[in-house]
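Propose amino acids for all 509 sites.
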């Protein structure tokens, strides 16, 4: 079955009309200001057609694929139309981002890539069904978080993941850059953060960090796919790597030992007056340098699981951390625990990582951020955490145990698809929700193949919840979704993306 994931707001297959055929004359027509989007589509289709379609800044003729940027685009808008008939393909949007999202839909209507050396279809044999799509996202923020601390991933690995996520109209890559086990982003004014702090990871797998040039490559590659990178510096807990690099950040002025375990909650910045000068200089330097690397509007300051910080110190530190972040001009995101603070900067966003049935203080803390004028990113752990094992998938690519099983795990594709963001916390509805995000923590994922195995296919469910309209009767049709996921499987195979062939999906042989 042909289909698009995430499901478009409106899609009509013209079953009685002839499909579009890519022929010798077919060009991709686009004005100079969106040439890059057309060129990227042409490059991608080379692996299907065995040749690269020419890109022309010209008036569209029959048999062309045209990209038209209309007037009046609102910043951040992503809506588009895609019309396919036997006379051509017309894509229209008021924004470059919308045109790009349209090419991601078109890509799924076309055949998957073929392996290098495999025989390509003859030119006139590549067809696209006649269809009219009119599409726009439900939520502005549709993220995936990658933990590059517990295990480090090289730039090329991250770029490859970005490519696979872009197809699903994910528009945020949140990078968890610092934690107890490592510090992964160069900060020139505090070089031992990545010197000493970058040398470790879980299980002694070796360290690693991104230079500023490395990080810029990730940001640029993401931006070409209209994906915004959100950097996270996790504070005031989850800081053992920083505490091992700089003695002056510790209560007692003594550097901590580097840490390569998986248990967390033991580390904290110090709120003691005698550490205030060093701590505030650290906060302001780190926020400034990370903000300089960040064209996007957000800095994520962590705030989770500060179990060894007293309640009073936590409030003091969160106030200083969020002020330092806000002083860069960026908006602040934090895990929902930051709702304990009554003095968050204007527009602070809470990332909810509780369950679908909120436990303990999770709903109250999240609501506190909203009451202070902020909004919420929904990452309910029991359905949106991609590091929780897949249900019904015993075999993993590398033969070691992959994925965690807390958060009511294992998680099925059906679970990941069956939830509704506005139904989790009373009073937090459509207007209060900025979007959804699926985190992939990497305690057990040692290679990018491990990451992909955990991410795919479940991320498709989160992408669809973030993009597609809320189902009218409230219930999502899992079988219809699973059929579209099955057709994605061919694209993943063609692109060399590892995925877990979970039960309940009619995977094509
Ligand atoms: C909880 S989610 C954490 C992470 C772990 C993750 C493992 C959150 C804010 N903190 O430190 O890696 O569970 O699933």
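Proposal:
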């Amino acid at each position: 079955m042909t289909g698009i994931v995430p499901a478009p707001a409106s899609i009509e297959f013209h079953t009685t009309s002839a499909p579009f055929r890519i022929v010798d004359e077919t060009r991709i027509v686009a004005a100079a200001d969106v040439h890059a989007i057309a060129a990227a589509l042409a490059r991608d289709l080379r692996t299907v057609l065995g040749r690269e379609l020419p890109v022309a800044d010209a008036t569209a003729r029959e048999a062309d694929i045209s990209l038209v940027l209309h007037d009046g685009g609102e910043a951040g808008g992503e809506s588009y139309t895609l019309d396919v008939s036997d006379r051509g393909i017309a894509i229209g949007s008021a924004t470059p981002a919308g045109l790009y999202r349209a090419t991601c839909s078109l890509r799924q209507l076309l055949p998957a890539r073929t392996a290098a050396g495999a025989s390509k279809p003859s030119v006139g044999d590549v067809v696209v069904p006649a269809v009219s799509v009119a599409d726009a996202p439900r939520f502005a923020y549709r993220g995936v978080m990658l933990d590059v601390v517990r295990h480090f991933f090289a730039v090329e690995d991250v770029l490859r993941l970005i490519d696979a996520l872009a197809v699903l109209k994910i528009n945020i890559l949140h990078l968890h850059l610092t934690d107890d086990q490592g510090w992964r982003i160069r900060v020139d004014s505090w070089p031992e953060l990545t010197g000493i702090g970058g040398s470790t990871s879980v299980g002694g797998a070796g360290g690693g960090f991104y230079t500023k040039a490395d990080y810029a490559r990730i940001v640029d590659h993401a931006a070409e796919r209209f994906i915004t990178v959100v950097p996270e510096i996790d504070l005031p807990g989850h800081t053992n790597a920083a505490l091992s690099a700089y003695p002056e950040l510790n209560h007692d002025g003594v550097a901590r030992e580097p840490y390569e375990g998986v248990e967390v909650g033991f580390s904290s910045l110090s709120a003691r007056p005698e550490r205030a000068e060093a701590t505030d200089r650290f906060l302001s330097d780190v926020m400034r340098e990370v903000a300089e690397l960040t064209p996007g509007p957000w800095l994520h300051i962590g705030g989770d699981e500060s179990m060894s910080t007293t309640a009073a110190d936590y409030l003091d530190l969160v106030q200083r951390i969020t002020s330092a972040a806000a002083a860069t001009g960026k908006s602040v995101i934090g895990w929902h625990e930051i709702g304990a603070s009554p003095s968050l900067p204007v527009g602070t966003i809470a990332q909810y990582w509780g369950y679908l049935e909120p436990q303990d203080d999770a709903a109250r803390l999240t609501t506190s951020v909203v009451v202070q004028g902020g909004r919420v990113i929904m990452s309910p752990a029991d359905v949106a955490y991609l590091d929780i094992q897949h249900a019904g998938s015993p075999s993993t690519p590398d033969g070691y145990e992959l994925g965690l099983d807390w958060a009511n795990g294992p998680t099925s594709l059906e679970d990941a698809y069956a939830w509704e963001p506005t139904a989790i916390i009373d009073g937090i509805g459509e207007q209060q929700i900025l979007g959804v995000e699926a985190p992939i923590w990497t305690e057990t994922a040692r290679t990018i193949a491990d990451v992909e195995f955990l991410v795919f296919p479940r991320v498709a469910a989160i992408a669809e919840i973030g993009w597609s309209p809320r189902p009218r009767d409230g219930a999502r049709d899992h079988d219809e979704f699973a059929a579209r996921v099955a057709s994605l499987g061919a694209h993943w195979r063609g692109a060399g993306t590892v995925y877990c062939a979970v039960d309940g999906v009619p995977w094509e042989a």
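The pocket of TNX is lined by residues 264, 304-305, 335, 353, 385, 387, 404, 441, 443 (CB under 6 Å). The longest helix spans residues 478-495.
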